[in-house]
Amino acid sequence: RGTMKSLRFISAEAFVSNAEFARKSLGGVAHDLFPLLFKASYLLEQGEVIHDLVKNWPLVDFNIGKLLGTTVDYQEDLSHRTCSVCLESCLTGLRDYVLNHSSPYMKKLKVVDLTGIKDVEVQFCECKKRMGRWTRTQLLSKLCLELLVYLQETQCNPGTFEISIDVLIDLYVTERNYELVVQALLKKCYCPLKICCVAFRSDNLALQKFFYIIKLTDPSLLRKLEIVHNVRLEMEHVEILFNSIHFPLLMSLTLPARTFNVRRFTDEDEGILTNIGEKMGEMTQLTELSISFSILTGRIRKLLSPLKTPLKMLDVSNCSLNHADMAYLANSFHANHLEALDLSGHNIHDLYPSTFFKLLSHSSSVLRSLTLEDCNIQDTHLNMLILSLSPCRKLQEFKFIGNPLSSQALKQLFTFLCELPMLKTVEFPVPRDCYPTGITYPIDDASLCRFDQRKYESVAEELNLILLQASREDVKASTPLFGSYDAAVQETNNELGAYLIKSFKETLEKFTTSLKMS
Q1: What is the mean pLDDT of residues 355-375?
Q2: Three-class SS state of 196
Q3: Given this model, what pLDDT does residue 492 score?
Q4: DSSP bridge partners of 370
Q5: How far, in Å, CA of 332 to CA of 362, rounded?
Q6: CA 38 – CA 4 distance, rounded (Å)
Q7: Averaged over 212-237, what is the pLDDT?
Q8: pLDDT tens digits, residue range 58-117?
Q9: Shortest CA distance to 367 belongs to which of 347, 389, 400, 382?
């Protein structure tokens, strides 16, 4: 794809392109060439060669992010290729490394880091089959358990049991793979491959199961914790979690929708919120926080002021923030450090235009990503919006779908956006004039697709022409009607969909029963 390859890399490609020859010849390959051959094999999707390279890996560490990232011999970053053929070959190769008959004393591998893989929407691999985070979690757990069974049933070299390799991975656990992952974590101390959970995401999981498995992951190593969607975690559960488990390295925390609801607060609840804030203050590495779709009106200060480290990422979308909350954010020490900010679902220009302007001016020197979806931004607010965005010279991503802007206003805004030098991604709304007259915002899901497709395409063409004429072909502009791509949700949508249907059915049954009783 137009990226220069060194002569060494071209030679490596030629070597691995004949899989049978390459596999027979690995014994005579210099150890320092293994990383080069691995990247070449990954590019060409030579699964068998990848398997044998990992099976015979001669180095102390195996860091997939570094191996596939930008290298001197081939600058293209392949870490966003979650190719199923390649990743399965890596993991089975790792299992077979342990079982390889070469002397255990020759085996140097101590750390395998699988956390550098990036899950993206578009796959460039030939097989077009991606292996997402959930499947990687499933496969590694399965291989660890199979390895244990094999070692117990077979007379292996005693030295095999001395092998200890830390496998750093981002785990993703749902109801469907829960039992398997639990078994792998419970038996971790007996297995030569030690699962080390660096990031943990859970969805569609009963609270009891979540609390059990989170303790098994060794929370002292955890850098990122995502509890999302269908985990019924409420504020008192968060307090129990933080009181009973210490997260010294936690850098990123995502809590599910409706964790907080200040409209139902009692005096006891105020105390719980204070305690949660203080516990988060003890997490000295915490720089990313997502608490979207909670009702936190007037309580942002109480939750965030105990933090001793400034936040770099804050998602408070649809949290019903009031003027006091926005004033706190604009004047807090977090404001000068925010690289990513999501204020979606807040009527910013009507409720707190000056504090929003102040917040952006404070974060402008570092802000890379700004999301203002469903914020009721209208044509009359355009000049104020442009004025607020003007100092944000490092902005790379701007998302503002769901706002009632006209085609004319979007053209004006795009003309300005061309001036932001670092901008790469823009997600813009379907223009208001493409919808029937009288449409109300926020638009409900049923009406979302009922717009003039031809007119929209014509406007989108004009907007892209504005970018083109300003020599900004590097900017990708799109309208994802149902929100941005989420690799984790995409991978498990069948399970999550089935769960939602089941929940809906149970609710209907309860409702029908109550009707009959009345």
Answers
A1: 97
A2: strand
A3: 83
A4: 341, 398
A5: 10
A6: 18
A7: 96
A8: 999 999 999 999 999 999 999 999 999 999 999 999 999 999 877 656 789 999 999 999
A9: 389
The percent of residues above 90 in pLDDT, for the chain, comes to 84
DSSP 368-401: -EEE-TTS---GGGHHHHHHHHTT-TT--EEE-T
**Phi/psi class of residue 326: alpha, beta or left (left: φ > 0; alpha: ψ in -120 to 50)?**
alpha
Amino acid at 222: L
- Please check the confidence at residue 515 and state whether its pLDDT lies above 60: no
- Of 69, 134, 99, 204, residue with least CA distance to 491: 134
Coil/strand/helix, residue 339: coil
CB-based contacts of 397, cutoff 8 Å, min separation 6: 368, 369, 370, 423, 424, 425, 426
**Which tokens in the block code for residue 133?**
């985070």
Give per-residue burial for 336-372: e unless 16+ CB within 10 Å, then b. Answer: ebbbbbbbbbbebbeebeebbbbbbbbbbeebbbbbb
Q: What is the pLDDT of residues 468-503, one digit of tens each?
A: 999 999 999 999 987 776 777 778 877 766 655 565
Interior CA angle at 392 toward 389 and 397, to 5°? 85
pTM of the predicted model as reported, rounded to 2 decimal places = 0.92
Residue given tokens 């990848």 in the structure block: 50
Q: Which of 62, 58, 68 is nearest to 36 (CA)?
A: 68
pLDDT at residue 45 tops 90: yes
Q: Which residue has the tokens 């992010």?
A: 65
Provide the residue ranges of all domains of the chain, joining segments of one domain with +.
7-131, 364-375+386-485
Phi, psi of 166 (to 5 degrees): -80, 125
CB 12 within 8 A of CB 83: no
Q: Are 106 and 64 in contact (CB under 8 A)?
A: no
Nearest Cα to Cα of residue 480 among 402, 370, 406: 402
What is the arithmetic mean of pLDDT over 34-51? 97
Instruction: Give the residue from 408, 355, 406, 420 showing the smallest Cα distance to 377.
Output: 406
